[in-house]
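Annotated sample (chain length 194).
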Amino acid sequence: MIAAVNSNHFSPQEYFDWEERQQERYEYFDGEVYAMAGGSLTHARIGVNVTTLLQSHTLGSGCITYNSDAKVGISQKGPFTYPDVSVSCDDRDRTAQQFIQFPCIIVEVLSPSTEAYDRGGKFKLYRQLTSLQEYILVSSETQFVEVFRRQPSGSWEFTTYGEGNSIVIESIGLTVAVEEFYQNVILIPPVKPE
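Output written by the structure step:
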């Protein structure tokens, strides 16, 4: 996400109408719209891999997997965000036209420019979704996946998975090797300053 692009304050419906006429995608927070930053090819490939794996697993289950073109609404009035991947098993999202509101899984592929926001502010927003069971962060620099799982008490359990591990996604009953998230991806570690 980058700086607000419009000095007007939009209502949610004005935002939907305005965004429909734009070439880029915009997130919506408290009446303001923010342009979505473009991702790297590595980011895009990991996103496709995760979407494909989740879609293949949920076919015929009543759950729907969405890619990064699907908005998630924290409420009917926003904020509205674009996660990299989301899964909803809630019938109310099956007929949604502008955004889903009841995902059980949200996945963000981390980029250096958005990592702090994905870990902090965005996760704070997503925790308001009572349907959300797992929030998954996927590194785009190393084979490393973090899963935050909602516990019956409402607290969040944190589990990490690295190369050679299998990721457990409990809400849809999927266990998948970390390497499958990184198929056909060449990871180039960032250059560290001397």
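Annotation: The helical segments are 12-20, 41-58, 91-94, 115-119, 121-126, 178-181.
Annotation: Residues 22 and 164 are 42 Å apart (CA to CA).
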